[in-house]
Amino acid sequence: MANLYYNQPILKLIADSLGATEQQAGTISVLTQAGYGVGLFFLTPLGDKLNRKKLILVLQLLLVASLAAIALIQSLAGMYVISLLIGLFSVVAQVILPMAASLAKNNKGKIVGIIFTGILVGILAARVFSGYITELFGWRAVFGISAVMVLLTTVLMAVGIPNVKPQFEGNYTRLLVSTLQQIRRFSLLRRTAVIGALAFGTFCSFWTTLTFHLGGPPFRFNAGTIGLFGLLAIGGALLAPVFGKLADKGNPVRSQLFAISVIVAAVLLVLAFPYKVLSFIAATVLLDVGVQATQVTNIATIYSLDETAHSRINTVYMTAYFIGGAFGTAAGVFCWEVGGWNLVAWQLLTWSVVALLIVFVSYLFQKRNIRQTATALQPVKK
């Protein structure tokens, strides 16, 4: 999944190299996220129907080819197409995650948290990696080196991943229909998907526009310095297993309420102090802690629903999640072009406050149901 985020800290340099505007370069990030959303819906359900090991290896090899192509492409249109394909084939991570959950009979939240930590550290380190590699060798080298690394992991997966028997026996059309049916089956899945989409929309909007804001006055940071903000965010990713354990033992809605509140606090910081480096340092840590806590809690919660449909349930959630990311990225770029950082920050606050309201209402309903259940169980006085 790191491949989705290599372009974010270096969008300005890509724009200069291809003779594009900042808005046109921002579209590269939007298309990568959109490609991931398309792949989530049309490819990841196959994890319930096909041999997951073979599916993982095929997607990895197609990703290697796409990364090699983007390292050589010379046109903006070609960049758009290949960026879409990189997003499409990067969904391999979402085949691995439900596979790990299905293999874990106990402590699913803990296992998901550990796996997700690896994914998150890769995502966040991607910004540091791309910033420094660009400074040393140019932005094209980022994708060339990534192609080699993905090829190496493909070899390791071919040796180390077990074969898992498929759970679904119908055809591909029935598989997609069944995926959509999961939305109707579980109200918890619907609510969790919306919360995840709003949280990730905030995250992507922040990181995409942060590149433009920190690269301009008064900061004028280079790509390497901007990439360092990814190191700050890794601290939040390392807390993922902690939130996974809490999801196994505690109250998921309460965990969501805490996580989204942290996101709102981060946004308020950069809204109040838009030209203070310390506010962005603190906000980066808080935002990533909040978003990762939200994500791990959400995933651990939905994996408790129907273990025979893990890939399809994961598809519904992650499709909504990354569509939220694509819309957040697009909204961030638009707000930056129209009103600069001030409008971006208000837009971030809107996304996060709506998510907070949904979780808060869910929390109130949960408390009411608990009280009603407790009342119903009380002995009737004669």
What fraction, in percent, of the residue positions are helical? over 70%
Beta-strand fraction estimate: under 5%
Q: What do the pLDDT scores average to? A: 84
CATH fourth-tier homologous superfamily: MFS general substrate transporter like domains
Chart the SSEs and their pairings.
Elements (H helix, E strand, L loop, with lengths): L10 H8 L3 H21 L9 H19 L5 H14 L3 H11 L4 H30 L1 H22 L11 H14 L1 H29 L7 H15 L2 H10 L2 H21 L4 H26 L7 H68 L5
Short description:
It contains 14 helices and no strands. With 382 residues, it is mainly α.
Structure commentary:
With 382 residues, the protein is an all-alpha fold. The chain has one domain: Up-down Bundle (Growth Hormone, Chain: A). It is 81% helix and 0% strand. It contains 14 helices and no strands. Helix 6 (108-137) packs antiparallel against helix 7. The chain is globular, with a radius of gyration of 21 Å. The termini are far apart. The mean pLDDT is 84.
Structure keywords:
382 residues; mainly alpha; Growth Hormone, Chain: A; 81% helix
